[in-house]
Amino acid sequence: xxxxxxITLIMLFxxxxxxxxxxxxxxxxxxxxxxxxxxxxxxxxxxxxxxxxTKTYAGHxxxxxxxxxxxxxDKGVFVNAIDTGVVTFVQDGEYDRNTDGNTSLGLGNxxxxxxxxxxxxxxxxxxxxxxxxxIGDKVSPGQHIASVGSSGNSKDPHLHxxxxxxxxxxxxxxxxxxxxxxxxxEESIPYDTVFHVxxxxxxxxxxxINDLKNRPVAKVKFNEQDSIITFWALQYGIxxxxxxxxxxxxxxxxLWFEYSYTYxxxxxxxxxxxxxxxPSSDIWGKWKYNYYYNNKLVVSGDFEVEKPSGxxxxxxxxxxxxxxxxxxxxxLPQNIIANTVKVYNISEQEIIQKDIRSQNSFALNIPNSKxxxxxxxxxxxxxxxxxxxxxxx
Length: 393
What we know:
This protein is mainly beta. The protein has helices spanning 2-13, 70-75, 209-214, and strands spanning 35-38, 63-66, 78-80, 85-91, 110-115, 119-124, 138-139, 144-147, 158-165, 169-170, 196-203, 221-222, 228-236, 243-249, 255-262, 270-277, 285-293, 296-305, 311-313, 320-324, 327-331, 338-344, 350-355, 361-365, 375-382, 385-392. It contains three helices and 26 strands.
């Protein structure tokens, strides 16, 4: 407890040396290529980051620059030296796709660099065999020294960065009420708590967290072989009490299903997914999904439920004859031996079901509740599937 208090006081009132123009330790643009999920925990009785916020966890001693997932890691994201210095230690060869957060594994693959004014920087959880420097090498500001990985005590691909004075005192490189008087960065990254959906998509199964970290195959078309349609999102900036909602809309815009969730704590990096059972074979076309955060639409997209095989749509109205505004006569093609017929209104509510076995033609009485033309859908089940068409009365 005494050590924690001493470090906190030092960081509140002191900067080490005159250099306050460090390069970012990771390549890319904040919010696009990486985000910061965790800062140093400066709390005594409760966890708190340098901004008196919750973007940290108990005992965390660095800053986590986090990628969007393993596909981005596989493409390669450089780690950079923050300043002029000499490499004092390297560790390589450790497995770099960890997802379980095993504390015994420490920083995994990492690099330590000594800088002027007795400052030391540490770069942890690096990608296996990506290290570009060795002990004794001199580095310059912004020099590529490795790539981001997920080695050691890691759940997602990220760079764990630490800054120390004389290898004894932990240094906060960001300026704020709980941090140093001035920022150490040449271009300081703003403290971001705004909600964002970083990436999202659809897939055809219920994914695990690790499936999402590796990214499931994206789909925008679903067919009779698919039993599940899942929406997933990688999001950050969630606060306790926030809510999200997903709604699924049929081709005519009616609500098929919706699901809401209220969060019980702050989340700065969160994988979300929600699914529906694939619609029945007689509802196909272009569907839509809407995703809301605190009742504000943040993601929207279309997907197609393809017409199942064995279903034939009438290309012309020659298979039925309109008798009046409530009655039609249907003539079945010679190759169709029908079982039943169903009629749906524009809201996809079933209004008629009729047994039509061994009939080559039959009449339907369809109550029309409007004076204006009204659209109905006719679905005839036969031994090979369905035969569907729409009518306007």
